[in-house]
Structure formats: C-alpha cells, structure tokens
Task: structure prediction
Amino acid sequence: MSNIPKIVILGAGYGGILTAQRLQKELNYNEADVTLVNKHDYHYFTTHLHMPAAGTDHMENARVSISKLIDEFKIDFVKATVSQIRTQEKKVLLEDGSALSYDYLVISVGGETETFGIPGMKEYAMSIRSINSVRMIRQHIEYQFASYKQDESRLDRLTFVVGGAGFTGIEFVSELADRMPELCKQYDVDPSLVKIYNVEAAPTALPGFDAELVEYAMNVLQNKGVTFKIGTPIKEATPEGVIVGEGELIKSATVVWAAGIRGNRIVEEAGIETMRGRVKIDDYLRVPGQDNIYVIGDNSLMFNPEGRPYPPTAQIAMQQGVTCANNIVAAIRNQQPVKFVFSNKGTVASLGKGEAIGIVGTKKFKGFTAAQLKKMIDIRYLFIIGGIPLVLKKGKFL
Amino acid sequence: MSNIPKIVILGAGYGGILTAQRLQKELNYNEADVTLVNKHDYHYFTTHLHMPAAGTDHMENARVSISKLIDEFKIDFVKATVSQIRTQEKKVLLEDGSALSYDYLVISVGGETETFGIPGMKEYAMSIRSINSVRMIRQHIEYQFASYKQDESRLDRLTFVVGGAGFTGIEFVSELADRMPELCKQYDVDPSLVKIYNVEAAPTALPGFDAELVEYAMNVLQNKGVTFKIGTPIKEATPEGVIVGEGELIKSATVVWAAGIRGNRIVEEAGIETMRGRVKIDDYLRVPGQDNIYVIGDNSLMFNPEGRPYPPTAQIAMQQGVTCANNIVAAIRNQQPVKFVFSNKGTVASLGKGEAIGIVGTKKFKGFTAAQLKKMIDIRYLFIIGGIPLVLKKGKFL
Result:
C-alpha cells in the first residue's frame, strides 16, 4: 500500500541503538518506517559486563529498557529472535514464525563466542556475552564457595580459570580478584586457598597494547593474586578443569572463556560472504553488491590505513551506527552517502577498583587517572544514548 | 596439678551457649575451668535459618561470633570438631588430634538430619541445618534461575520441593514463596512458571498443632502459590526430582528436606544408650548412671506429663542450658541438683512477611499479631544471649 520505505534494524547493541536513535532524530514524519528487532526488551552495556559477571556490580547497572532509549511513536520495537535473513525476498524471518519485509536492512546482531575448536570449551566453559550468561557466571562463582563449604577437599571449587588475556579477559580477571576477599569473608574461606589463573596463548597479555602499560597491568593483577600463564594455549576443557601448555591440568570448577569473538552465523547463513563470520563491508558500511544491507559492529570487517582489521569494539560500533543511519537517510533522499572514517577516541582497560590503563592519542594513562578516564567514557556513553536521566540512573556504579 | 574441676561443653547451639553463659555468671573465680568446644567460631540462630536459606534475609543476621557471647577470660573457647567421647577416660577427642579431659561434660552438639531411609534423600536433597548448608541452599536456588535462562526447556529448575510440613518446612516454604517474585523479576522469569510443592507424609501439615491455625496457615501459603501434597510420602529422591505417593514424579532441580531430626551419632558411638539417637536423660538432665554427663537440646529425650516426648526446640534447649549449668554448679558445691521442668512459653510459626500463627497458653494468634509475637520472641532471644547490643546489631531483620 504505502510507498514509505521500510528500515529494519536487527539487534539493539551499541551499533543498533545508535542507528535507531540517529534515524529517529534525522527522519521526517512519514519519511520511513523504522523497526528495531531485539532478542530482549533491554539493551546491555557489553563493556560493563565484567563487573556483574564477577559480582562487583549489580546486573541492573548493566542494562536499560529499550523503551527508555527510543521513541516508540517513531520506531517500532519487536522483541524477537531472528531465525533467517532472506536477501532475495528482502525479508527477515523471526523465530516466532512471523516475517518482516525491509527496503533497508541494518545487521547489528553482535558476534558469537569463538572457541577456535578447542575441545570441550563449548561444553565446559562459560562466556561473558549477555545478561543471561553473566548472571550465570556470577551465580556459578558464588555457588562454588557455598559448595566448597560442604566438602573442603574440593579445592578446584576455589580455583578460577579465565581463558584469554585480551580486554575482556583482563577486565574480568581484575574484578574477580577484587571480589574474592569479599566472598572469602562471606563464606568463611581462607583467602590463601583461592587461585585465579589467566591463561593466554599469545606471547603477551593484551596483545597489540603498549608494552609498558601491559607490564603495569600485569603487576597490578599479580599483586591482587592473579597467576598469569602467558604464551600458554588451553589445549582442552574438561569437566575437571583445563589442560594447558604441555599437558598440565589445572583443576577448576569454573572456566570462563574470554578469548574470542566471531561473526554471527545468521550472516553467513543469509548467503553473505564472510571471513571468520565477519563481512568485509564497503566504505559506506554496505555489503558489497547489496547496497540496501548495512553491516555494523561485531559482524563488520574494516581495515585501518595500515591495512590491519579494526578490532570489534563498542566505540567503532557506535560510530558506525551514526554513519549507517546518515547513509540510509541519504539513500532515501537520493543524496550521496558518506564514507565511514573511524575516529579513535582512545582505549582504556579497567583493572578493577581504582586501577586502569589507557591510551588516548599518543598519551599513556595508568592507575587512578586511567580509572577516572574509564568512568568518564562510561558516563559519556550513558549520556549519548540516554541523556542525563540515564547517567543519573545507571551511573551509580561509576 | 590443680584440683579445679574441669567442665567441657560440646556445642555452642542454644543449649550450649546458655549453659556457658550461666556457668560464667554463677561460678566464682577458680571454682571451675570451663571449656566450650564448637565446630565454628560462631553461634547461629537455627530458628532463623529459613530466612537466609530462602534468601529473604542476610546470612549475617543468623549468626554471631562466639567471642561476642562469652567472656574469654572466664571461659576457654576451642574451635574444633569432636571426633569421639571416651566416657571411661573422661576425655573428648578432637578431629585435630588433641584431647580434652573433663570432670563434667555437657553434650549439646545438636542433632542430625533424619531421612528415614528414603532412597536418594541423602544424596539428592539439601537440608536446613547449619550456616554452611543454608548458604548452599540459597545459592542453589538462585543458580537455578540463572541456569534456567540458559535453557528454558528445563522447567524443573523453576520447581521447588520442600519435604516436610512441620515447623521448619512450613517456615521455609513461606520464605521461599515470598522470595520468588523477587527472583522472577531479577532473572526475567515469568512467575507463572514457578512451582513450589510442600510434601508431607502425615495426614496434616504441622502435625500436633491447632487445626484451625493449620488451616489458616495453609490458606495463606496457597495464596502465595504453594501447592500442598499432604498425606503423601516421598518415596524416593532422584537426580530428576522426587517420586511421591503412588509413583508420581515431580521433576525438580531443588529438593529441600525439612522433615526429620535425630540425635547425633557421636552420642551412641560414645556407648551411651539412645532411642533414635536421643538419650532418655534423668530429671536432672544427666545420662542415667553417669552423673557427670549432661545431655541437652536435640540429643536429649524428655517426656511431658502426658507421657509424650517434647519436640526438640530452641525453647527447651535454652531452658535445659540454664538448669544444666545450675546443676553442675550445685554438684561442684555438693548441693542438691534441681529437677528440670519445662515451662512452655508458647509456639509461633512464621508464614513469611507479616504472617504467622501461634499459641501462647490456650490463646491462639494469627496474621499480623502473630508475626509481631514472633519478632518479640526473636528479640527476646537476642537479648538473653547478647543484651541490647546484640538486639541492635542483629535485630534489623525483625
């Protein structure tokens, strides 16, 4: 009936929310129908999940209702899981059996855990990837303390293994180390019995990050009781723990895999060409040859001027969201799209309470200053998506 | 060397603490050496455990350091687990290999869970009997919600079975029902999927209690969503749940057994004659034929004037503690002991927030009044053992 173009956004993560909000702002009345589809009725802050996962912050500080972020008079929200994208028919099928047609599609569904084929990893390890998985990890950790007090021979219940010393791994292990004294006190457990291992296959923690800051981070964490096993691949995860390096078994009832992310399978299943699940999009964030499909966030693959792929971060997803929305509006108005140019605002990794490391431009930060910087970044994000009210509501943890 | 008599108290529950405190008060300087032995360095309020078990109150409100309850200049405290009582040698062996000699022994170690030989009950059910077991139950419950969100086909994770509708069972099931809406909200679970069963083999809930009040209690709990299966024995506990009545399987990942208590095995292993683990003590609380050994609390068996055994309660244990201490002092001073006479102060069962039932003398209470009465009883106990400071510190939950 109507000739109004239909825009469907799949996923309300960093990229999807920014796209929706920018479209909401830019589009005129009746210029397009926008539908946002998301598995949950909330948006969550992936970069904050390491805190509730370890139990150092409340879960509710890591999510916000989507209805608080978008104007439902302007954008339709559908709570559903996408089962299939049919590019030929310009349709998205949902798990509940319904289907959405689109003229423009934004794929911002987020990535999946990549276990690199390590045997047992999918079965026996948990990963930090959603509110549901994070609630599980948090409960699992506390459950180990409660269980240990029922059978004090089970020291594996007090041993925690984090696979991967990238950003997620380091940030999680930091919170875990901060949480342990509290749990020991609560459960009457001798803190000297608790072991935290951070295992990384690469020859350094935080690969690609400034060496001086990496050393600083490792010192901070070692002082908090973390044992690093760097240059040590996990060979296998088993019901007893993990086998690392040359066959050493670390007995542990809690293995958290924080080492890899790949593109979502839904993208390759749509017949779109991918590299390890990610789409090598054009400069305008579009699937090559399919100008009406945009891919942003974890499923997109872009290269920096030196020819190296940008790592999937919240920062790049947010910037892509804004450009994506602008380019869709331009397309509707028969205007020229703009090329996406990543503007690096800097990178900060939290090391737990009062400690962090960061780089902004060429300037290095560490300790308290870096921790303050991290808080500012988090506050800035809350402000961008929800204004002052959201800062006041969710910013308490900062 | 010294001729000062040695008094050893085993267990710092209601009976043991009251004995220790009364001895501390009555004994003159150097009149006796008193040693209190307890597995933990804290005393806990067994009658309050149903709240932290369900998660409706903090664990710390259910316990207090023993050092806050006794004067360690007057009484020695030994944190140890008793492994054996050798009545011939007047010695108590501890698990750490040490031994304590006594002239007077008070056995106030508390009871053990009685599962009446129901297959699988020991292996697959939890029971409310200590701070450690209660922390486990609490974590287990929350773990089920977190796990359910990982696999929503597992409805057994949202089904909770409480075995026994006696005092502990009813009080726990009440708190559990109060806790569920909160957990559902926290984990985004549809409350209509949660099931709570209270299964009781006897033909009524709260056997022996006033029928009108029992009916009131059942109505209150049914309105909170509890399903009763009364006159229905649990035939077996399995990894899947429980088999009840004529073979019906209730699938449940959480079975809490709150139906039975028996005497501690350490007593019968000491060669003391017992009936279902309990010692039929004389009127002075002593083991027949062994005037220097007193048994109080869950391990003691006494009969009311109608010839029925008193149920093991905190109330009777406390009163026994006082009489026990008085009689030991009398024995040391070559005075006459006094007979123990139980003075029934009434009985109140909590039904969760703002609800309870109770009988004091011949007067029945229910609803808000009964709930206030329950609080008064709890406050009175805190006052007896720790004075105003303990009331202020732990009475917050009241």
Notes: The longest strand of chain B covers residues 33-38. Residues 199 and 365 of chain B are 25 Å apart (CA to CA). Residues 367-394 of chain B form the longest helix (28 residues). Residues 121-259 of chain B form a domain with the FAD/NAD(P)-binding domain fold (CATH 3.50.50.60).
